[in-house]
Amino acid sequence: MSTNNFTQEELTSFKESFDTFDKNGDGAISASELKSLLRIVGEKFHAKHISETMQLYDTNKDNQIDFEEFLVLVNKIVKNKAPISP
Ligand SMILES: [Ca+2]
Ligand SMILES: [Ca+2]
User: Fold this and answer.
1) DSSP string, 6-33
2) Nearest ligand, measured from the Cα of 65
3) How far apart are CA 19 and CA 44, in angstroms?
4) Ligand 1: distance of its center to the CA of 31 in Å?
5) Rounded distance from Cα 79 to ligand 1 centre (Å)
6) Fold held by 8-79
7) Are 57 and 69 in contact (CB under 8 A)?
8) Whole-number mean pLDDT of the chain?
9) Residue 83, CA distances (Å) to 32, 46, 75 in order
10) pTM above 0.90?
11) What is the pLDDT of residue 10?
12) 33-60, pLDDT tens digit by residue?
């Protein structure tokens, strides 16, 4: 896909992070899973911001962040130099 230029190593590491945040293992990050993700990366999000973030990154509007959508979010976090590891 064209929304990122991550290396294979980065993608592998992001996939591991994704799997960590996808606690119920359904291959997508829900709002509550996103909440713990944002807490870990140090974002002080309120519930309102969670839904705004969901709307911003959930580009196919299925109320879940899949891995491709997650990469867009990660790309933003990386650019802001915030940590992504749990
Ligand atoms: Ca999930
Ligand atoms: Ca989605």
Assistant:
1) --HHHHHHHHHHHHHH-TT-SSSB-HHH
2) 2
3) 22
4) 9
5) 25
6) Recoverin; domain 1 (1.10.238)
7) yes
8) 83
9) 19, 19, 11
10) no
11) 92
12) 988 877 776 666 666 778 888 999 999 9
Question: Ranked by mean pLDDT, which of 45-49, 63-67, 76-80 comes out on top?
Answer: 63-67
Ligand nearest to the CA of 67: 2
Tokens, residue 60: 């196919």
**Alpha carbon distance 74, 15 (integer Å):** 11
Q: Note the pLDDT tens digit of each residue in 1-41.
A: 445 688 999 999 999 999 999 999 999 999 999 888 777 76
What separation in Å is there between the alpha carbon of 68 and the centre of ligand 2? 8
Tell me, in angstroms, the distance from the centre of ligand 2 to residue 15's CA: 16
